[in-house]
Structure formats: C-alpha cells, structure tokens
Amino acid sequence: MVQKIKEDFHKHVKSHSHAWNGLYLIFVSQLNFRIELLVMLLVFAAGVYFQLSLIEWYGIIFSVTIVLLTEAMNSAIEKACDAITTRHHGAIKYAKDVAAGAVLVASAAAIVVGVFVFGPHIVPLLPR
C-alpha cells in the first residue's frame, strides 16, 4: 500500500515537471505567447491602477486565461501536425487554421471584455 502511494506520488510530481516544461517551451518558442503575456501584465497593472471590482477581475482573468490556453493549444496542434508532415495536406491545413481561428476568437472576446471592464474607468478621464 505504501509503495503504491509512493509510486502514485512520483507519477504526480513527474506530470507536474512535464507541465512546467511545456510552459517553458511555449514561452521560449512562441513570440505570440510572449506578447500575450506582456499584454496580460499591462492589463493586470491597469486593473490594479483602476482598482477593479472582484467581478471585473473575474472577467479579465477568465479572458486572459482563455487567450493563453487557446494559444498553447494552437501551438501544440501546429507542432503535432508538423511532426506528421511539413508538406501541404488539406486536413492538416484545416486543423492549423481552425486552431489559429480559435485564438483569434478568444483574443477578440478578450478585447470586448476589456472594453466593457476598462471603458467606464477610462471614459471619465478623457477630455471633453
């Protein structure tokens, strides 16, 4: 019983090391991911500056998470497809285009959320 627990714990720790390695790999290999992280930091700084409410933070954090997740999945799909073939293939083009489209949809939705969240804080600061 104790041996089984030790083995399960070791597997769990190893899976976390793979996950951290995946984050490292996407960070060092994908410019778009690094740009999105930079935008995230700027948005978080603006959120602190404007003292967002808890519900506003929920919207921002959810939107940022969806963008980063879709970017990571897009990168994984591209890499997996490239491992199969780098030659033109209709199904692979479809998979890559749909994955990239998912990032576009997530990014557009995040922009809309950003406008709704930050708009009421920024509009009063604009000159009349």
What's the helix and strand layout?
Blueprint: H1 2-29, H2 31-49, H3 54-84, H4 90-122
Helix pairs in contact: 2-3, 3-4
Any descriptors?
single chain, 128 residues, mainly alpha, Helix Hairpins, 4 helices, 0% strand, flat
Characterize the structure shown.
By secondary structure, the chain is mostly helical. It has a single domain, classed as Helix Hairpins (Orthogonal Bundle). The chain contains four helices and no strands. It has helices at 2-29, 31-49, 54-84, 90-122.
> Could you say which overall geometry the principal axes of the C-alpha atoms support?
flat
Count of separate DSSP helical elements: 4
Q: Uncertain segments of ≥5 residues (pLDDT<50)?
A: none
Radius of gyration: 20 Å
> Biggest β-sheet, characterized?
none
Number of domains: 1
Give the percentage of residues in beta strands: under 5%
CATH topology name, in short, is Helix Hairpins
Order of helices and strands: HHHH
Main structural class: mainly alpha
Average pLDDT for all residues: 94
CATH class equals: Mainly Alpha
How many β-strands, per DSSP?
0
Overall CATH architecture: Orthogonal Bundle
Distance between the termini: 72 Å
What is the share of helical residues?
A: over 70%
